Amino acid sequence: VVDDDGLTRGGGRRRIVLFPLPFQGHISPMLQLADVLHRRGHLAVTVLHTARNAPDPAARPDGFDFVPVPDGMPAAVAASDDPLEKILAMNAAMDTSGCVRDALASILLSATEEQQPVSCLIMDTALPAAQKAAAALGLPTVVLHTVSAASTRLYRSYAMLHDKGYLPAQEQELNRPVKELPPLRVSDLFDPSKHPDQESANKILDGNFRTTSNSAGVVINTFEALETPELAALRAELGSTGTSTKVFAIGPLHELSAIDAAASSLQEQDGSCISWLDTQAPGSVLYASLGSVIPVQKDEFAEVAWGLAGSGVPFLWVVRRGLVAGGGESDPDLPDGFERAVEGRGKVVRWAPQREALAHGAVGGFWTHSGWNSTLESVHEGVPMLCRPLFGDQPVNARYVGEAWKNGVLLMEGEKKLERGKIAQAIRAFMDPGEKGDEMRERAEELRRQSAACLEPGGGSTCRAVDELVDHILSL
Ligand code: UDX
């Protein structure tokens, strides 16, 4: 379908429209995907985005069009800590207002006038309202999963998990292995019955399931060597539903894309931590970040602070606005005396250039909430992880790190509350594990090599998948 310089044979370029969910962990991979398709497939790009959490106009990539739509969230929902409520409210408002349909219709019209017909809408799986709007206009959709292939598969397994009695989870069964989805255990499953609003949680899972089933392609930010059995199973399962939806493993997107991290960052990155890392010994620093969405309770925040302080290990800690529950979007107050206690050994920033920090030679370990982007960024840099997942797909990622890939360990697994003494001890054991740590570091290094190999031009699995994805998009 494509000639040498990426133009369709009929002349005129093709355009794609992309619509991310407006959270950091979703915006970044979507913009990275846009950049990859723009450069590799010569596709023209329109990014549809909500007016709230819009990508910074000053840092937007050249040549992309940006079209805002209102998210329609009531103020109380926008201010809440619950991402599921936000997702449902956005979808409901978009359905009611028709704003996505109107925006798409106008993009389709001007694209036709400019002889850049739109191939498809590439959208976040959590936006069924966008898929409905596209379908009404006859526009095919491709979904981007910003989670792993294992989580993508898990989200399609809820009927089985209920049928087989894994869910609703019973307290005494939390350690039970889910033998259909190894290495997961019951405690790793997102359990809608434990969510304050069970119906909302089920609706999100259902929406996710439907957008994937109804799509013309599934893009996952992962790579073949990392999730070989999970990708094979997912392909078999999607094929067996009769939709034969193609699955493209095109990660790690952050490395494949040339887009500047600032272009997709919703917060200003504090580069001073990189010069601070320059002053630290190789492999000595624990980088700690608890993600961008879920807050921690105030008492846990204090335990984390004093755990870091008590460990004696040098650390770089991201304390973002809104990290502490109940504080809104304000900067959390560090506990009294904390800064004095860690002077010279600990650095706290509001937001770090994370990828640069993980790539820095001084960083020897990553205390992570096990968000998928963070996990993949750490895998790519070969940094072992100390995992303390908070929500959603994060326990799945942590389980894979601890048991399948063995490039990290879980922090205080099974214990509901963090405790400073145990944290300090766990950090010391993680950063200086003696011979026990050899396997973890070897595995981290092996995965780093595999991640680099999948990006090899020509032969790497990710590069091949990108070419296949471009062909697929042009065939729609
Ligand atoms: C959420 C879910 O938690 C995650 O599991 C899902 O896969 C995507 O949505 P989030 O909490 O934002 O993600 O975590 P993560 O997926 O790790 O994404 C965070 C992003 O913010 C990463 O790309 C990371 O590099 C970036 N970041 C984080 C910074 O650039 N600076 C920081 O200081 C902290």
Automatic annotation (TrEMBL):
InterPro entries: UDP_glucos_trans (IPR002213). One of its GO terms (cellular component) is cytoplasm. GO terms for molecular function: quercetin 3-O-glucosyltransferase activity; quercetin 7-O-glucosyltransferase activity. The keyword Lipoprotein does not apply. Keywords: Transferase. Belongs to the UDP-glycosyltransferase family. This is Glycosyltransferase. It comes from Brachypodium distachyon (Purple false brome). The lineage of its organism: Eukaryota, Viridiplantae, Streptophyta, Embryophyta, Tracheophyta.
